[in-house]
Amino acid sequence: MNEGERAPDFTLKDQYDKEVSLSALRGKRVVLSFHPLAWTEVCRIQMQDLEKHRADFERLGAVALGLSVDSVPCKKAWAEAIGVQETPLLADFWPHGGVAQAYGIFRERNGFSERAVFIVDQEGIIRFRKVYPIREVPDINEILTALEGMQT
Fold it and tell me: Which of 7, 58, 95, 140 is the least buried, fewest Cβ under 10 Å from its Cβ?
């Protein structure tokens, strides 16, 4: 998926076993922060950055979601271990990586997603897309700057 295209809708469960649907968040900007796997250092920092900047996202009319192919019980244990309580960490577990596939960032040979960030606007259109090197933490300031640029 590219900028200017309609973001594929999805419904996934978060670390609390609560369903989260992209379409239910219409009217807000949504940051989709894909990370390959829980329990890895770069992914931990990426998700903690979302949690630390939750107030910034709210101020900008946005909600951040972390997504990976891990299961709900895995996401729950990991969220507790890394101190992520408010940011939904979504399990793109079954069909395996289905959302990552819909967004065109599933690494078939690895069985997980690219490290990527999409920002979806209030109408469900992708306004920002960036795939990061797998070992690089996405720049949270770049994401916040992109959101600020979308202010109307």
Answer: 95
